[in-house]
Amino acid sequence: ETLAIIVFLWLLGKAIGLLLKLFSLEGKKSKTIANIVASTIKYGLLLIGAFLVLSAWGVETPTLLASLGILGLAISFGAQNLIEDILAGLFIIFEDQFEINDIIQIDGFRGKVTEIGLRTTKFEDVNGDIKIINNSDIRGAINTTNKLSPAICDVSVSYGANLKEVEDIIKANLERIKKNIPHIKEGPFYFGVESLAESAVVLRVYSKCDEENKYSVRRQLNREMKLIFDENNIEIPFNQIVVHQVKEDSTT
After folding, report:
1. What is the four-CA torsion angle of 136, 138, 143, 145, rounded to 10 degrees?
2. Based on the domain organization, do 155 and 222 belong to the same domain?
3. Cα–Cα 20 to 30 A to 34, which of 63, 142, 191, 202?
4. What is the CATH number of the domain that holds 204?
5. Residues near 138 by beta carbon (within 8 Å), at least 6 away in sequence
6. Dist. CA 190–CA 203, nearest whole Å
C-alpha cells in the first residue's frame, strides 16, 4: 500500500508538471507562474504523501492531525522568515517586478533570472555562476530588460594624429560597424572627444542594444574599431612618460 501511494503521487506530480510545462510555453509570465505553482504542488504532494503513508502504517488520523496542528503552531513561531520569503515571491509575480529571463541588477550583482520559487530566486551571471537569493532579501532590484542598454567603445589616438581626419574615418565606417554587429539596435554614433588623457585623446563610439547582448556588442565594437584603425594606419598610443634629466654644472 505504501509503494502504491508513492507511485501514485509520483505519477500525479509528473502529470501536473507536464501540464505546467505546456502552460509555460505561452510566454515569460506563464513560465514564471508555472514555476511558483510547481513549487507549491511539490511541497503539497510531499505533505500529503507523508500523511497517507503514516495513515497506511496505522497511525490514527485524528491523532496525526492533532500532532500536525501542534507542530504547525510550533513551526509558525520560528518560520517568520519563510513566510516573508513566500509573500515576497508572490508580490514579485503579481506586481510584475521581473520575470524569468529578465536581466536584473541587485547591489552590484548583475544576472539573468533563471528561476522564481516560493522561497528563493535564482540568477545566472555572465560567467554562468548561479546566485540564489531569498525573496525577502531582494530589495532595490533594477530591471534592465525592458529598455535598450548602452554599449560603448572608448578608443585612443595620439596627440600627434590629425583629429579631424580620424573623426571622418570613424564616421565613414559607422554603417559598416552596424552591418557587422547585427545586435546593435540604435547607432552606432560617434559622440566625439570623451577626454584628454595623459598620453592620448579618447574618442567615444556609442550604440544601444538589448541588455543581454550588452557585453558582446561592446567587445565587437572594440574589435571593429581596432580593425578600422589598422586599415587606416591610425596608431593607438601606449602610455608614455617624459623624463627630464638635469645636467650638472661642470664648473662646480
Report:
1. -80
2. yes
3. 142
4. 3.30.70.100
5. 88, 92, 106, 121
6. 8
Structural contact between residues 211 and 145, judged by C-beta atoms closer than 8 angstroms: yes
Reported pTM: 0.57
Rounded Cα gap, residues 80 and 84, in angstroms: 6
Nearest to 206 by CA among 220, 194, 188: 188
| 156 and 218 inside one domain | yes
Range of the domain at 29: 2-78
Q: What residues contact 224, with CB distance under 8 A and at least 6 apart?
A: 173, 176, 177, 180, 181
Higher pLDDT, 199 or 75: 199
Mention every residue, 6+ apart, whose C-beta is less than 8 A from residue 207. 150, 151, 152, 181, 184, 185, 186, 187, 188, 189, 217, 221
pLDDT in tens, 42-74: 767 777 777 777 667 666 666 666 666 655 655
Q: Is residue 83 part of a domain?
A: no
Q: Which three cell numbers stand for residue 215?
A: 557585453
For residue 100, the domain's CATH number is 2.30.30.60
CB 208 within 8 Å of CB 217: no
Q: Are residues 158 and 184 in the same domain?
A: yes
Shared domain check, 213 and 154: yes
Nearest to 26 by CA among 95, 100, 88: 100
